[in-house]
Amino acid sequence: MKKILSCILIGILALASVFAQGESEASSSKKAEVYFLNFKPEIASVYEEKVAPAFEAETGIKLKVVTAASGTYASTLKSEMAKSNPPAIFQTNGPVGLADSKADVADLSNTNFYKLLADKSMALSVDGKISAIPYAVEGYGIIYNQAIMEKYFALEGAKAKSMDEISNFATLKAVAEDMQAKKEQLGIKGVFASTSFGPGQDWRWHTHLMNVALYGEYSDPQAALVAKDFAFKYGENYKALFDLYIDNSTTAKGLLGSKSVDDSMAEFALGQCAMVQNGNWGAGQILGVTGNKVASEDIKFIPLYMGLEGEDKLGLCVGTENYLCINTNISQDAQANADKFLTWLFSSTTGKKIVKEDLGFITPFNSFEDSELPTDPLAKDVTKWMNKAGVASIPWVFAGIPSEQWKNDFGGQLLQYVQGNSDWASVVKIVQDSWTKEAEIAGR
């Protein structure tokens, strides 16, 4: 009996050893993975189809990319963070967003990614620790089609003879309204692309266009960050440019509630309009549209003129709300792999090539040579405007907006105005009241 029991025990130990070895081999063969929660739907395919395969091929580490739907990043981030396998890398839009994520951000002071940042003052901190690093500097304004504009300038009675003459709102308005009256001669459906108001598609108006009015009132982004109230002193200026968009559009006002940003960019790409408000990231969208009729050299910028004093000396809105964070609530190995991915993307030969040719980022990192900077037409035009003598870029003051709810409140009321269901005074009231309420909730 003893011999039998001994044999059984030896067998059990042998099986246990085999199972343990199998588990160990399975564990060691399982590839490390970096989970990146992407903010920008328009470049999701680049991350999925180019970045992820290249990173895995060169490092052996998988890159899992999940992209939040437009306008839902904050809510998506919150739900993903609560899961058992949360993002290793996520984005924040600036100090306000970072304050909401301060319990989740790792200290990046000793990461290789942080060491790449040329101007260390651009990083954001929480409790004295480097917590968010910008990965792209961007600019936006009114994108125009040079070929259509040249066609207009050649017409009898044109209100301007070159884009150099359009350096203020009065001239822009005169030109746009004259072009709209002559749209058949120009072969366009309208001067401006559709002012998109589909669900989650109104960020160009409640954030980007509003930035100029915020700049007029606060000038310094830091002042907006602590502002308890927003008088909307330049509300009439905002209205003037916004009305110019919707009154001289490819699309009737009543249909704008169903339009997306993709719709408006496609209209521009197909030559159906002469202008569209968007940023340098839009170059890829335009050039990637099937049937695109706009030559790369004809895609250029003018600033968002709305009648501010001295606006002929103001340029594009230039800044960033593109900051990356690493999740402090994951393992040290996972954090190290996240750092490895970000460092690879912005310093390796392969990564930099994708950044230049496919992502089109104007990066703040010291790892890029001049020859490695983006060459798409809008990135080049942002650089041109940033270096234009006697012209100052408008900073991104919208980082001081107290909450996403304020944007939703404003955007919703703006749509009611577009559809004729409310007057402009109602828009002004919601802008003011919601700011005060949201600033108080934010603890200002």
Uncertain segments are 18-29
CATH superfamily of the largest domain: Periplasmic binding protein-like II
The arrangement of helices and strands along the chain is HEHEHEHHEEEHHHEHHHHEHEEEHHHEHH
pLDDT average, as an integer?
Answer: 92
- Using the 3D structure, state the CATH architecture of the largest domain: 3-Layer(aba) Sandwich
Radius of gyration: 26 Å
Terminal CA distance reads 80 Å
Largest sheet: 6 strands, mixed
Q: Report the portion of residues in β strands.
A: 5-15%
> Total number of helical segments?
18
The number of domains: 2
Oligomeric state of shown chains:
single chain
Helix content: 40-55%
CATH topology of the largest domain, by name, is D-Maltodextrin-Binding Protein, domain 2
Work out the number of β strands.
12
Structural class: alpha/beta
